[in-house]
Amino acid sequence: MEKIEYDQFSVTILPPATTYHPVDGRKYTLVMSTKDSNYHLAIGFKYEMELLNEETEKILTAEWQPRLGEYILTGRIDFGSKRNGEIVWNNSHKIQGNLTEAISLMVKADKDLYAHVPWLLDAPIYIEIDSNTHKYKTIQYYGTPRQHLI
């Protein structure tokens, strides 16, 4: 297991995944702590849902998938499954502000992959924001990995 730690951000690459393998189905689990603004990213063949604990409310999952001959990075963040609409609305605005930063951290943490597979730099990133309240459900475009590496 390879582990990289930065100030308030840690990355774990879970075997048999490596910094260069796999591309198809490469999964990211980014946990954002609500108490101390720490981030933990796990990269592997499966989502690391056991990272979620009571102190951590926000989790972003993403995966590289081939679609129509090119790759896209699709992700999902869920909030509002047990909350009322007003709390969901407040959390959605907080998360929107942090989501771009979270995606940038995820992309930068995996920069060795882009050196090995450079065509992923221009692949689109789509994040689904999921909620029980229908009006807060969206799929948003978040640019490309190249834009997040700047």
Automatic annotation (TrEMBL):
* Superkingdom of origin organism: Bacteria
A Pfam family of the record is Staygreen
Q: Where is the Staygreen protein domain?
A: 4-147
- This one is known as Staygreen protein domain-containing protein
What organism, scientifically named, is this protein from?
Siminovitchia fordii
